[in-house]
Amino acid sequence: MWFQAGSWSVAVRNVIVSGGSRGIGLAISTRLARDGYHVIAIARRESEELRAEIRQMGGSLAFVPFNFSDVHNVPALVTSLKKEFGPPYGLVNNAALGTEGVLGIMHNAQIEELMRVNMLAPIVLTKYVARNMMAAGFGGRIVNIASIIASTGYSGLSVYGATKAAMVGFTKSLAREVGKTGITVNAVAPGFIATEMTSMLTADEKAKIARRAALTRLAEVEDVANAVGFLFADSASNITGTTITVDAGATA
Predict the structure, then answer these.
(1) CA torsion through residues 176, 178, 184, 185, sign
(2) Which of 187, 216, 197 is nearest to 157 (CA)?
(3) Terminus-to-terminus CA distance in the chain, angstroms?
(4) CA 132 to CA 174: how far, in whole Å?
(5) Which of 24, 77, 84, 89 is in the most buried spot, having the most CB atoms within 10 Å?
(6) CB under 8 Å to 208, separation ≥6 — which residues?
(7) Is the domain 11-246 a CATH 3.40.50.720 member?
(8) pTM given for the model
(9) Are 244 and 187 in contact (CB under 8 A)?
(10) Which residues are known to be catalytic?
(11) Which of 70-74, 94-98, 209-213 has the lowest mean pLDDT?
(12) What are the extents of the domains in the chain?
């Protein structure tokens, strides 16, 4: 597919992945790059793992530093990405904080930061990326990474769960707003997966969660990446406004 916008005329599909330097975001970035997309992984810092993947992938994977706490700089970020790489075809809103804390004793600054990074930043980022998608006129894909916590709840993650539930609601309404332009909007809700965000759990706690799952195991980051890859495929062009749960049947 050829994009034409201003001086750009390139046969690549640019996909922005926030929080793409490690864990689920890195798995998504590498999966989409292998599928033939040009992926721009955005994070505060470039991890060693991402650096190694960039060397291996060549020109199909790039890194751009950005701190999503700086929401007011998101419009400038999107403008610079379009100028450097061309118009976007896809966006994966993955960057998020998993700060643990019981609400009654959680500092207001922590609550505000979670809301800003996990909810406000992806909404604002989507606003400006979707504008560019619509201007390009070739449709596109938006995938929001939610969490099963949005529907199941978990003690100590009430604020985190609230932000992820907001992303599910955002997904459903935005799908209706942009559907006529050929853009699909979906969410993927991972269960407990062995990443930095689940490091708060002990080995026994992880084992208990695995035993409760229908498949008696935890899902892997690659499983989440595969779900995102499916939603980006042409075969998923009529899937929008939905949430795919990837949790090995923990919520079955």
Answers:
(1) negative
(2) 197
(3) 39
(4) 15
(5) 24
(6) none
(7) yes
(8) 0.92
(9) yes
(10) 160
(11) 209-213
(12) 11-246
Looking at residue 192, its amino acid is F
How far apart, in whole angstroms, are the C-alpha atoms of residue 176 and residue 112?
Answer: 29
CA nearest neighbour of 127 among 142, 108, 137:
142
Half-sphere exposure of 250 (CA within 13 A, CB side): 24
Cα–Cα–Cα angle for 136, 15, 163, rounded to 5 degrees: 105
Interval 130-152: pLDDT, tens = 999 999 999 999 999 999 998 88
Q: What are phi and psi of 93, to 5 degrees?
A: -85, 95
Alpha-carbon distance of 149 to 210, in angstroms, equals 15
For residue 80, the surrounding DSSP H or E stretch is: helix 74-85
DSSP string computed for 154-183: -TT-HHHHHHHHHHHHHHHHHHHHHGGGTE
Nearest to 183, CA basis, from 236, 228, 146, 227: 236
